[in-house]
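It would be a great kindness if you could assist me with a short task in structural biology. The full record is reproduced below for your convenience:
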Amino acid sequence: MSFSGDMERLREIVNWFESENSGIEESLELFEEGVKLIRNCREYLENAKRSVTVLTSDKEMEGGLADD
């Protein structure tokens, strides 16, 4: 699933917890799914941050070389 898809599913799970009073089994399954989705989103954001850092560093290096 994509980052946006994972976030949307997380919203659905949160809404379910806020509105439903179902059994412990279903609650546990949804909780576990939510934890996995959060891990996926966190990993995506960490990778994006690394990419931005690399691109920014490359851009700074290019600018620094052009000034020499």
Summary: The chain has a mean pLDDT of 88.
